[in-house]
């Protein structure tokens, strides 16, 4: 089974580069690859959700930790689910300039690095749920395996090799491993798509 140590060794071996310069950047290279994969992969392992309750008159919501992209933002009003629509913050502030203008929220936007803005400000303590793409727990000396090492090692390795090749200024290798990565990525996302078709087309018994 592949581990964090296996990955770092493979990067050096595949590039035939055991310099201390590359070795000193391997942790950062792996982190860069993890961030890219979190943005590119639609696999359920990267999906998470968080729930909470809005505060009346408070138009800000704290973003989930490790969030890499929002899939949905819904609230409960009575017995109904309402999907909030994403809008630019300038739109929200223009049409709902005061937090005293309360109602059932319709929109949300990125206020800053840690908060969402909702509009209008909630007039009730609506329950909410945010579905999002997350970055997996980072690989490290103390966290040696995760979904990628166990289920998509080829994808992880090629992404790391692409970043490592760029770091050591080896453009031919960077281009080649980027192509390998994109091919592996298509395979992983295709596997996810097949899984969704299966999940939603289970014959009635």
Strand content: 15-25%
Task: Give me the secondary-structure category.
Answer: alpha+beta
Domain module tally? 2
Number of helices: 7
The first-to-last residue Cα distance is 39 Å
Number of strands: 10
Give a topology summary.
Layout: H1 4-14, H2 20-23, H3 26-40, E1 47-53, E2 60-62, E3 67-77, E4 80-83, E5 85-86, H4 89-95, E6 102-103, E7 107-110, E8 115-119, E9 121-122, E10 127-134, H5 147-151, H6 153-167, H7 171-200
Parallel strand pairs: 5-7, 6-9
Antiparallel strand pairs: 1-10, 2-8, 3-4, 3-10, 7-8
Describe this protein's structure.
The chain has 205 residues and is an alpha+beta fold. It folds into two domains: 4-43 and 152-198, no CATH class; 47-134, no CATH class. The chain is built from seven helices and ten strands. It has helices at 4-14, 20-23, 26-40, 89-95, 147-151, 153-167, 171-200, and strands spanning 47-53, 60-62, 67-77, 80-83, 85-86, 102-103, 107-110, 115-119, 121-122, 127-134. A four-stranded antiparallel beta sheet has the order 1-10-3-4. A four-stranded mixed beta sheet has the order 2-8-7-5, with helices on one face. A two-stranded parallel sheet has the order 6-9.
């Amino acid at each position: 089974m592949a581990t964090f140590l296996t990955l770092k060794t493979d990067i050096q071996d595949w590039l035939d580069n055991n310099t201390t310069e590359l070795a000193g950047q391997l942790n950062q290279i792996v982190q860069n690859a993890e961030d890219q994969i979190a943005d590119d992969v639609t696999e359920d392992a990267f999906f998470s959700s968080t729930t909470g309750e809005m505060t009346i008159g408070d138009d800000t919501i704290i973003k989930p930790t490790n969030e890499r992209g929002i899939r949905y933002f819904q609230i409960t009003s009575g017995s109904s689910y309402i999907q909030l629509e994403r809008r630019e913050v300038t739109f929200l502030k223009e049409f709902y300039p005061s937090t005293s203008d309360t109602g059932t929220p319709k929109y949300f936007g990125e206020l800053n690095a840690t908060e969402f803005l909702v509009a209008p400000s909630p007039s009730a303590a609506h329950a909410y749920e945010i579905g999002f793409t997350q970055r997996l727990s980072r690989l490290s000396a103390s966290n040696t395996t995760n979904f990628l090492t166990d289920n998509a090692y080829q994808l992880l390795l090629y992404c790391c090799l692409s970043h490592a090749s760029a770091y050591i200024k080896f453009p031919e290798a960077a281009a080649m491993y980027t192509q390998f990565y994109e091919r592996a990525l298509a395979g992983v996302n295709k596997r996810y798509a097949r899984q969704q078709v299966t999940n939603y087309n289970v014959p009635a018994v």
